[in-house]
Design a protein that fits this description.
The chain is α/β, with parallel strands linked by helices. About 35% of the residues lie in helices and about 20% in strands. It is built from eight helices and ten strands. The longest helix is centred in the middle third of the chain and has 15 residues. It is globular, with a radius of gyration of 18 Å. The two termini are about 20 Å apart.
Protein backbone atom coordinates (compact mmCIF):
# COMPACT_ATOMS: atom_id res chain seq x y z
CA UNK A 1 0.00 0.00 0.00
CA UNK A 2 1.29 3.42 -0.96
CA UNK A 3 1.05 5.97 1.84
CA UNK A 4 1.62 9.72 2.28
CA UNK A 5 1.56 11.74 5.49
CA UNK A 6 1.16 15.52 5.42
CA UNK A 7 -0.02 18.34 7.65
CA UNK A 8 -3.46 19.62 6.62
CA UNK A 9 -3.18 22.67 4.37
CA UNK A 10 -6.09 24.85 3.28
CA UNK A 11 -6.64 24.73 -0.50
CA UNK A 12 -2.93 24.12 -1.20
CA UNK A 13 -1.04 24.20 -4.50
CA UNK A 14 -1.37 21.43 -7.09
CA UNK A 15 1.70 19.54 -5.84
CA UNK A 16 -0.16 18.69 -2.63
CA UNK A 17 -2.95 17.08 -4.67
CA UNK A 18 -0.38 15.25 -6.78
CA UNK A 19 0.80 13.70 -3.52
CA UNK A 20 -2.78 12.72 -2.63
CA UNK A 21 -3.32 11.26 -6.10
CA UNK A 22 -0.09 9.22 -5.93
CA UNK A 23 -1.11 7.13 -2.92
CA UNK A 24 -3.77 4.68 -1.78
CA UNK A 25 -4.09 6.20 1.69
CA UNK A 26 -3.39 9.79 2.72
CA UNK A 27 -2.76 10.53 6.39
CA UNK A 28 -3.79 14.00 7.52
CA UNK A 29 -1.02 14.74 10.02
CA UNK A 30 -2.94 16.74 12.60
CA UNK A 31 -1.19 15.80 15.87
CA UNK A 32 2.02 17.74 15.22
CA UNK A 33 2.82 21.32 16.13
CA UNK A 34 1.30 24.20 14.23
CA UNK A 35 3.94 26.16 12.26
CA UNK A 36 3.62 29.93 12.09
CA UNK A 37 4.03 31.48 8.63
CA UNK A 38 3.76 28.05 7.05
CA UNK A 39 1.11 26.91 4.57
CA UNK A 40 -1.41 25.33 6.94
CA UNK A 41 -3.79 28.29 7.00
CA UNK A 42 -2.68 30.41 4.06
CA UNK A 43 -2.00 30.30 0.33
CA UNK A 44 -1.78 32.39 -2.82
CA UNK A 45 -4.40 33.28 -5.42
CA UNK A 46 -4.50 35.81 -8.23
CA UNK A 47 -5.70 39.31 -7.43
CA UNK A 48 -5.28 41.90 -10.17
CA UNK A 49 -3.18 39.41 -12.17
CA UNK A 50 -0.65 39.23 -9.32
CA UNK A 51 0.02 36.66 -6.62
CA UNK A 52 -1.89 37.54 -3.44
CA UNK A 53 -1.49 35.82 -0.07
CA UNK A 54 -4.64 35.08 1.91
CA UNK A 55 -4.75 33.73 5.47
CA UNK A 56 -7.34 32.08 7.70
CA UNK A 57 -7.44 34.04 10.98
CA UNK A 58 -6.73 31.98 14.09
CA UNK A 59 -7.27 32.22 17.83
CA UNK A 60 -4.33 32.16 20.28
CA UNK A 61 -1.77 31.02 17.74
CA UNK A 62 1.08 29.01 19.27
CA UNK A 63 3.75 26.73 17.87
CA UNK A 64 3.47 24.83 21.15
CA UNK A 65 0.00 23.62 20.17
CA UNK A 66 -0.82 20.79 17.81
CA UNK A 67 -2.65 21.67 14.61
CA UNK A 68 -5.73 19.88 15.96
CA UNK A 69 -5.59 22.08 19.08
CA UNK A 70 -5.70 25.29 17.03
CA UNK A 71 -8.97 27.11 16.44
CA UNK A 72 -10.22 29.44 13.72
CA UNK A 73 -11.41 32.96 14.51
CA UNK A 74 -15.06 32.81 15.56
CA UNK A 75 -16.05 36.01 13.72
CA UNK A 76 -17.51 34.74 10.40
CA UNK A 77 -16.79 37.98 8.53
CA UNK A 78 -13.46 36.60 7.28
CA UNK A 79 -15.32 33.90 5.36
CA UNK A 80 -17.46 36.37 3.43
CA UNK A 81 -14.41 38.58 2.82
CA UNK A 82 -12.40 35.65 1.43
CA UNK A 83 -15.25 34.55 -0.83
CA UNK A 84 -15.71 38.12 -2.03
CA UNK A 85 -12.00 38.34 -2.92
CA UNK A 86 -12.17 35.04 -4.82
CA UNK A 87 -15.34 36.07 -6.62
CA UNK A 88 -13.98 39.45 -7.69
CA UNK A 89 -10.68 37.92 -8.81
CA UNK A 90 -12.02 34.93 -10.77
CA UNK A 91 -15.54 35.84 -11.92
CA UNK A 92 -14.32 35.97 -15.55
CA UNK A 93 -12.43 32.66 -15.35
CA UNK A 94 -13.84 29.94 -17.64
CA UNK A 95 -14.87 27.53 -14.85
CA UNK A 96 -15.94 30.07 -12.24
CA UNK A 97 -19.61 29.03 -12.32
CA UNK A 98 -18.66 25.42 -11.56
CA UNK A 99 -15.92 25.98 -9.01
CA UNK A 100 -17.22 28.91 -6.97
CA UNK A 101 -20.20 27.02 -5.45
CA UNK A 102 -17.74 24.34 -4.31
CA UNK A 103 -15.57 27.00 -2.68
CA UNK A 104 -18.61 28.56 -1.02
CA UNK A 105 -19.32 25.18 0.58
CA UNK A 106 -15.70 24.69 1.64
CA UNK A 107 -15.13 28.18 3.06
CA UNK A 108 -18.57 28.21 4.70
CA UNK A 109 -18.02 24.86 6.43
CA UNK A 110 -19.18 25.12 10.05
CA UNK A 111 -16.06 23.98 11.88
CA UNK A 112 -13.81 25.93 14.26
CA UNK A 113 -11.05 23.35 14.56
CA UNK A 114 -8.28 24.23 12.09
CA UNK A 115 -7.24 20.64 11.38
CA UNK A 116 -10.76 19.42 10.67
CA UNK A 117 -11.56 22.53 8.60
CA UNK A 118 -8.49 22.04 6.39
CA UNK A 119 -8.99 18.27 6.14
CA UNK A 120 -12.55 18.86 4.95
CA UNK A 121 -11.28 21.13 2.17
CA UNK A 122 -8.80 18.47 1.04
CA UNK A 123 -11.47 15.80 0.88
CA UNK A 124 -13.96 18.03 -0.91
CA UNK A 125 -11.45 19.01 -3.60
CA UNK A 126 -10.37 15.38 -3.97
CA UNK A 127 -14.01 14.34 -4.40
CA UNK A 128 -14.53 17.06 -7.00
CA UNK A 129 -11.48 15.84 -8.93
CA UNK A 130 -12.74 12.24 -8.61
CA UNK A 131 -9.59 11.02 -6.85
CA UNK A 132 -9.92 7.57 -5.31
CA UNK A 133 -7.48 8.10 -2.42
CA UNK A 134 -8.75 7.25 1.06
CA UNK A 135 -8.12 9.59 4.01
CA UNK A 136 -7.35 8.96 7.65
CA UNK A 137 -6.37 11.36 10.45
CA UNK A 138 -3.13 10.70 12.32
CA UNK A 139 -4.67 11.52 15.71
CA UNK A 140 -7.00 8.55 15.19
CA UNK A 141 -4.04 6.15 14.93
CA UNK A 142 -2.83 4.55 18.16
CA UNK A 143 0.91 5.19 18.47
CA UNK A 144 3.78 6.10 20.76
CA UNK A 145 3.59 9.88 21.19
CA UNK A 146 7.11 10.05 22.63
CA UNK A 147 8.69 9.43 19.21
CA UNK A 148 9.25 12.34 16.85
CA UNK A 149 10.22 13.14 13.29
CA UNK A 150 11.20 10.21 11.08
CA UNK A 151 10.54 7.67 13.83
CA UNK A 152 6.95 8.87 14.18
CA UNK A 153 6.45 8.65 10.41
CA UNK A 154 7.86 5.13 10.38
CA UNK A 155 5.59 4.07 13.22
CA UNK A 156 2.53 5.32 11.35
CA UNK A 157 3.69 3.53 8.20
CA UNK A 158 4.08 0.28 10.11
CA UNK A 159 0.71 0.65 11.85
CA UNK A 160 -0.99 1.10 8.48
CA UNK A 161 1.02 -1.66 6.75
CA UNK A 162 2.55 0.63 4.14
CA UNK A 163 4.79 -0.88 1.47
CA UNK A 164 5.74 2.52 0.02
CA UNK A 165 5.99 5.92 1.67
CA UNK A 166 5.83 8.97 -0.60
CA UNK A 167 6.87 12.41 0.63
CA UNK A 168 7.03 15.81 -1.00
CA UNK A 169 10.49 16.48 -2.44
CA UNK A 170 11.10 19.25 0.07
CA UNK A 171 11.54 16.60 2.75
CA UNK A 172 14.48 14.79 1.15
CA UNK A 173 16.89 15.96 3.84
CA UNK A 174 14.60 14.76 6.62
CA UNK A 175 14.48 11.06 5.84
CA UNK A 176 16.97 8.20 5.62
CA UNK A 177 16.21 5.64 2.89
CA UNK A 178 18.05 2.90 4.78
CA UNK A 179 15.82 3.33 7.84
CA UNK A 180 12.74 2.83 5.68
CA UNK A 181 14.36 -0.03 3.80
CA UNK A 182 15.20 -1.78 7.08
CA UNK A 183 11.51 -1.54 7.96
CA UNK A 184 10.53 -3.07 4.61
CA UNK A 185 9.18 0.21 3.25
CA UNK A 186 10.28 1.85 -0.01
CA UNK A 187 10.85 5.60 0.33
CA UNK A 188 10.01 7.91 -2.58
CA UNK A 189 9.93 11.67 -3.09
CA UNK A 190 7.43 13.36 -5.36
CA UNK A 191 8.77 16.00 -7.73
CA UNK A 192 6.30 18.30 -9.49
CA UNK A 193 7.29 18.84 -13.10
CA UNK A 194 6.82 22.28 -14.70
CA UNK A 195 3.11 23.11 -14.90
CA UNK A 196 1.54 25.86 -16.98
CA UNK A 197 -1.96 26.57 -18.21
CA UNK A 198 -3.72 29.56 -19.67
CA UNK A 199 -4.65 32.16 -17.07
CA UNK A 200 -6.00 35.67 -17.69
CA UNK A 201 -2.80 36.97 -19.24
CA UNK A 202 0.09 35.48 -21.18
CA UNK A 203 2.56 35.73 -18.28
CA UNK A 204 1.98 32.64 -16.14
CA UNK A 205 1.86 32.99 -12.35
CA UNK A 206 3.09 29.69 -10.80
CA UNK A 207 2.59 28.03 -7.41
CA UNK A 208 -0.88 29.33 -6.69
CA UNK A 209 -3.62 27.58 -4.75
CA UNK A 210 -5.56 24.74 -6.40
CA UNK A 211 -8.31 27.38 -6.64
CA UNK A 212 -6.46 28.95 -9.56
CA UNK A 213 -5.91 25.62 -11.31
CA UNK A 214 -9.58 24.68 -11.13
CA UNK A 215 -10.80 28.10 -12.24
CA UNK A 216 -8.93 27.71 -15.55
CA UNK A 217 -9.17 23.94 -16.07
CA UNK A 218 -12.01 21.44 -16.06
CA UNK A 219 -11.79 18.18 -14.12
CA UNK A 220 -10.14 16.24 -16.96
CA UNK A 221 -7.60 19.01 -17.61
CA UNK A 222 -6.80 19.32 -13.90
CA UNK A 223 -6.30 15.57 -13.62
CA UNK A 224 -3.94 15.70 -16.59
CA UNK A 225 -1.93 18.36 -14.74
CA UNK A 226 -1.84 16.12 -11.67
CA UNK A 227 0.11 13.61 -13.74
CA UNK A 228 2.90 16.13 -14.35
CA UNK A 229 5.05 14.56 -11.65
CA UNK A 230 7.71 11.94 -11.03
CA UNK A 231 8.93 9.87 -8.11
CA UNK A 232 12.61 9.93 -7.22
Amino acid sequence: MRLAIMQPYFLPYIGYFQLIDSVDLFVVYDDVNYIKKGWINRNNIQVGHKSHLFSLPLQSVSQNKYINETQLDTNPIWKSNLLKTIQQSYRKAPFFDTVFPLLESIVGYEEQNLARYCAHSLQEISNYLQLETRFVTSSEIEKDHSVKGQDKILEICKKLHATDYINAIGGMALYDRSAFSDAGIALHFLKTNPITYRQFKDEFIPWLSIIDVMMFNDIAQTNALLQQRELI
